[in-house]
Amino acid sequence: RYDAVIFDLDGVLTDTAHFHFLAWQQLAQSLGIDFDSAFNEQLKGVDRMGSLSRILDLSDKQFSHDDKLKLAELKNRHYQKLIAHMSPDDLLPGAIECLSSLRLAKIKLGLASVSKNALAVLESLEIRHYFDVVVDAALIKHSKPDPEIFLTAAKQLNVSASMCLGVEDSIAGISSIKSAGMTAIGIGSSSVLREADMTIPDLRTLLHYISLN
Ligand code: BG6
Ligand code: MG
To answer: Which residues bind Mg(2+) (predicted)?
Structure first.
């Protein structure tokens, strides 16, 4: 039995991973840079400036630090337009069932998202109250794949890493969970999320793998 389950947000509880992709694509296109969904797998779970650097590396132009800050801000505006009308209807299948069953079973719940928009999304989805801990992305120095965010969640939950299960849809996120010394469940394909201990298609099957008593 696990003492805590620590969830990623974007692409796990709701499909905002797709909105991040669309917003980055919109920004990249305005710069004449092209990237596809396979490249996007490398951006998932990586913070805003880190993702921007990877995209700008595809171009042969040079960008100053000031340019980068403005571009990151512009991407965030594109993204915020896409999430402006989110509601509980945008939760992915199985999300509410998982959160409520885990809480009933007194398993602690944490949220480990590097997104500075995470709290706003949680509130639009009306699920903030399920979580004992929501790590503040602004305080995280090293984005996924560094283990910092999952270790911070475990520490704030007062649970040892080995008793935590992490749930992620990104390559960087699975690495973060594994290097934190936790068990990693991947949402998606095992050919992409190779480091995961197990992969499942969506949250509808998560509870089959967690003993609740
Ligand atoms: C992660 C997403 O959750 O948050 C990334 O997987 C995103 O795609 C990152 O870049 C940072 O998000 P934000 O909202 O702070 O720009
Ligand atoms: Mg994610």
So the answer is: 8, 10, 168-169
The finding on whether 42 has its CB within 6 A of some atom of ligand 1 is no
5 known ligand binder: no
Contact 45 CB / ligand 1 (< 6 Å): yes
User: Is 44 known as a binding-site position?
Assistant: yes
**In angstroms, what is the span from residue 108 Cα to ligand 1's centroid?**
24
Q: Is 3 a catalytic residue?
A: no
The DSSP line for the chain is --SEEEE--BTTTBTHHHHHHHHHHHHHHHTT----HHHHTTTTT--HHHHHHHHHTTSSS---HHHHHHHHHHHHHHHHHHHTT--GGGBPTTHHHHHHHHHHTT-EEEE----TTHHHHHHHHT-GGG-SEE--GGG-SS-TTSTHHHHHHHHHHT--GGGEEEEESSHHHHHHHHHTT-EEEEES-TTTSTT-SEEESSGGGGGGGS---
How far is residue 31's CA from residue 11's CA, in Å, rounded to a whole number? 26
Question: Does the predicted TM-score (pTM) go above 0.90?
Answer: yes
Taking only the tens place, the pLDDT of each residue in 147-205 is 999 999 999 999 999 999 999 999 999 999 999 999 999 999 999 999 999 999 999 99
Expressed in angstroms and rounded, the spacing between residue 167 Cα and the centre of ligand 2 is 9
